[in-house]
Amino acid sequence: MTYEGALSEPEDFPKSDEPVWILGRRYSTQKELAELRSDVLSRIWLTYRRNFAQIGNSNFTSDKGWGCMLRCGQMVLAEALVRRHLGRDWLWNASTSDKTYLRILGMFEDHKCATFSLHIMSQLGVDEGKPIGEWYGPNTVAQVIKKLTPFDEWNNFSVNVALDNILIIDEIKCSCQTEGERTWRPLLLFIPLRLGLSEMNPIYYSGIKKCFKMPQSLGLIGGKPNHASYFIGFMGDEIVYLDPHTTQDAGNVDKKETEAEVELDKSYHCTFALRMPLEQLDPSLALCFYCGTEKEYDDLCNRMRQELIDGEKTPLFELVPTRPDYMKDDASVEGATGRCMELEDHHFESEDDEEFEVLQ
């Protein structure tokens, strides 16, 4: 195993009076260090892989050097699947052989038949003019996931990608409600933002921390070209993340019956998280949230209103009950699905993410 990241750093969470927040959970490093590490270890860790079947007609048999943001998108999806089927309290250990967990893991294996594989995600990018081997930004990955999830009937996610830093409450809710009934489709919400020009504006640190405290948080994805990471929490003024820049051999965990399959399963779980100062976070990022029920969505909107909108001098984004008049020309009605208006689906733009409104 080759570590391009800083996984040799042993002090993942130093003893401190500062609490650690991981995806809506609070921990004390003084009293709950083992529980904290177990929580981090249980997140599904997707990294660079090598020696997999080539992607389409390309010569790529590894994604080292270009697939890190796609891997971060996979980690967000994996966390959403765990929430949906196993719950936030679920924990992994080396002997875990739960069929649901193994089914989730199998959806991210590196071959063309896996629902959320690197192969399929990168080829979806080709359909939108993104060559295989080219780096993706957070907004592009969110759009790829939105296009991919309708093919996943097992989970039936409603994926929404906020546009222009605006969340439209009723449209998102409408997209999660099935036709003719009040059944809720689990919501996977991405909010792409650009919080500064070349550097993160410190005025947004507080809002980012508040997002990690929300029980619906799936963290955030972001990073500079060729160096993206999946951020899952914070401690003081440092942000906690999982680094995909570790190149491991591809393979199938299958039913986890052989020694090789057991060892491969371990490669999907990171023993130690990494930390870095918030000031080093790239300003181009996407916040991620999961709402398994309508009640959870209503609670998320209330939290956003109270903590991120009313509670901040400079909010990260806008939250509106209905589509503003100036945006109505962008709305599209899908009468056949009975889902009212869905958020506009932009085509992929350049990886500078120039379509973002820059918040300063």
TrEMBL record:
This enzyme catalyses:
[protein]-C-terminal L-amino acid-glycyl-phosphatidylethanolamide + H2O = [protein]-C-terminal L-amino acid-glycine + a 1,2-diacyl-sn-glycero-3-phosphoethanolamine
Protein keywords: Autophagy, Cytoplasm, Hydrolase, Protease, Protein transport, Thiol protease, Transport
Q: Name one Pfam family in it.
A: Peptidase_C54
Answer whether the UniProt record assigns the keyword Protein transport to this protein.
yes
Query: Which residues does the UniProt record annotate as the domain Peptidase C54 catalytic?
Result: 35-303
Q: What the protein does?
A: Cysteine protease that plays a key role in autophagy by mediating both proteolytic activation and delipidation of ATG8 family proteins.
| UniProt-recorded name of the protein | Cysteine protease
